[in-house]
Amino acid sequence: MSDTDTDTECSAVLDAVVVGAGFAGLYQLHRLDGLGLRVRVFEAGDDVGGTWYWNRYPGARCDIESMAYSYSFSPELEQEWQWSERYATQPELLSYIRHVVERFDLRRHITFGAAVTRALYDRHTHTWTVTTDSGEEVTARFVIMATGCLSRVSTPDLPGRDRYRGPVHHTGRWPHEPVDLTGRRVAVIGTGSSGIQLIPLVAEQAAEVTVFQRTPTFSTPARNRPLTREESDERKVGYGEFREWLRTTSVGIPRPLPVHSALEVSADEREAAYRSAWDAGVLGGIQASFTDTLTSRRANDLAAEFVRSKIRQIVHDPQTASVLCPTGFPLGTKRPCLDTDYYATFNLPHVRLVDLRKTPLVSFTERGVETTEGEYEADVVVLATGFDAMTGALRAIDVRGRDGVALRDAWAAGPRTYLGLLTAGFPNLFTVTGPLSPSVLSNMLISIEQHVEWITDCIGHLRSHALTEIDATDEAQDDWVRHVADLAAGTLYPEGASWYQGANIPGKPQVFMPYVGGIGAYREVCAAVADTGYRGFALSRLPDELPRT
Ligand code: FAD
Ligand code: N01
């Protein structure tokens, strides 16, 4: 495309704006480009990759096998790409994404360093006007928010940050230049998936590591290893069937499907099942050993006790082991973790654990951080404190729909969507892996592809039927919001103070945001809605005198 073409593209009314250039935004761009639409993508970062652009901390890697956590839309791409490890590192994931961008010639449509700050719907022209932080304004018929479920970082509101003399790095905004921790005293706050991946690698370099833990985590060994050519080639035979099978499961992770209740088998059989899951190194393997781990407190306690017994075996100091043992919430109700040598790291003489439940953090000091017990000096502070998940990036944008209603107000008591795809009153504004869809309870690549394909088909349908607008009806949305809440209420999930329900962000409404019914069931619902003429949505045509795109 020439510069002149780009200029023309910028000034005309676009068919679609996509916000975000991670896995979701890039695939959405590819599909809409394939429909022949005029599309622009705005990305706040300086390059593609989303999660894998921002999270460059030591140890960052996926925890669903790369051969499943990758695009499936192109059999050629699937066949030509060779993963080097069972669980790819962040640099390898980023080079995969860059390869996809070059292979499908996507870069020319993307504007980098452009954070979308506002999206206003015009009820006269039935278009959206999208504004970026540099003041650029474009108008489009459709807006697709591919802003990510875990893209807006959460930083603790700890006083005294200005006084602290050393650097503070958030895992989700890790510097691009190398951070040399050799011989340094490092304080790490947070022990979720990011902290658990990072801490063993920091301990390899640093002179002293102090881990500040508020809630201990259930983590199991990843059993990561190099992926041989033979193993990879074997998977590539019948790759399509493998992907298709994953799509019908509840979470899209390659692991055995449970058959029995934990309560109907003998203690020996139960132990054997947990041991086999522990040895397999698969995300959520322990909870998936039995059908009722997330619905029966008794079944859950058995699984949780198995993991605690493993922690006590690995960690030499009983006091440290006891602090690392998660209690007080059911296993699996906060996102499970996969690690490499996480618990064993606490056997190293230069690694210590601080229990923030006993001695909470008070502030930064000039030389480190302070708890109610005293000061801990550190040359570098790492915040592995997570994200304002699922709604954070969307609420950060001033989105105003029909009659000027703000999305922030529409979602004041928690997100309201129909299928996680659209919100009533915000026509033609789609959310990829939006709240109240399975999203973060699944292999995200599967959920992303399903949403992108549904959205693309929907836009294609509107265009081929000379329709201009789709909006969720209030009734369908109310029913869906209730259905998602009812499903979650039938599980133990609400008992974990997790980011799934906004519990990590002070003041955020406590609503369980992902759909727990499973991706297989969910995609059937979405397909049935489309097949029945988009049941629950209002589809409309512009009056003739209004401009069409
Ligand atoms: P993102 O990758 O988050 O991309 C969203 C993009 O939108 C970002 O680049 C952001 O800068 C941009 N953006 C946001 N707001 C704006 C705005 N206003 N204007 C312009 N741009 C904006 N999931 C799994 O299923 N398996 C895994 O193994 C796994 N590992 C993970 C590891 C880490 C460290 C993290 C943080 C998450 C992981 N996830 C994993 C979840 C991961 O977020 C998804 O798998 C997936 O990468 C999400 O892709 P996305 O495109 O939807 O969102
Ligand atoms: O964030 P988290 P994350 N004072 O919210 C603590 C994905 N991911 O970045 O639990 C003290 O899980 C907080 O404590 P508590 C994955 O979906 C995947 O680690 O709130 N501590 C917790 O320990 C994951 O779930 C991978 O009590 C504070 C930690 O910080 C999601 O991203 C890797 C605090 C935050 O844990 C988020 O993971 C990385 C405070 N004020 C991420 N505030 C893979 O392996 C927070 N904490 C694929």
Please tag this protein with its features.
eight-stranded mixed sheet; binds flavin-adenine dinucleotide; alpha/beta; binds 3-acetylpyridine adenine dinucleotide; 16 helices; 16% strand; 549 residues; disordered N terminus; five-stranded parallel sheet; FAD/NAD(P)-binding domain
Give an overview of the whole structure.
- This protein has 549 residues and is α/β, with parallel strands linked by helices.
- The chain has a domain at 3-48 and 106-152 and 389-540: FAD/NAD(P)-binding domain (3-Layer(bba) Sandwich), CATH 3.50.50.60.
- It has helices spanning 3-11, 23-34, 51-54, 75-80, 90-103, 193-205, 229-236, 239-248, 267-280, 297-314, 318-324, 392-395, 407-410, 444-464, 474-489, 519-531; strands at 14-19, 39-42, 110-111, 116-122, 127-132, 137-145, 168-170, 185-189, 208-213, 219-221, 337-339, 351-355, 361-364, 368-371, 374-377, 380-383, 398-400, 429-431, 469-472, 537-540.
- Strands 1, 2, 3, 4, 5, 6, 17 and 18 form an 8-stranded mixed β-sheet that branches. A 5-stranded parallel β-sheet has the order 7-16-8-9-12.
- A hairpin with a 4-residue loop joins β4 and β5.
- α2 (23-34) packs parallel to α14 (444-464).
- The chain is globular, with a radius of gyration of 24 Å.
- It binds flavin-adenine dinucleotide and 3-acetylpyridine adenine dinucleotide (N01).
- 3-acetylpyridine adenine dinucleotide (N01) binds at residues 62-63, 150, 156, 171, 189-195, 197, 214-215, 335, 338, 356, 361, 384-387, 440, 499, 504.
Q: Let me know the CATH homologous superfamily of the domain at 3-48 and 106-152 and 389-540.
A: FAD/NAD(P)-binding domain
How can the largest sheet be summarized? 8 strands, mixed
Summed over residues and divided by their number, the pLDDT gives a mean of 96
**Rg over alpha carbons:** 24 Å
Shape: globular
How far apart are the first and last residues' alpha carbons, in Å?
21 Å
What's the CATH architecture name of the domain at 3-48 and 106-152 and 389-540?
3-Layer(bba) Sandwich
Low-confidence blocks of residues: 1-11
Strand content: 15-25%
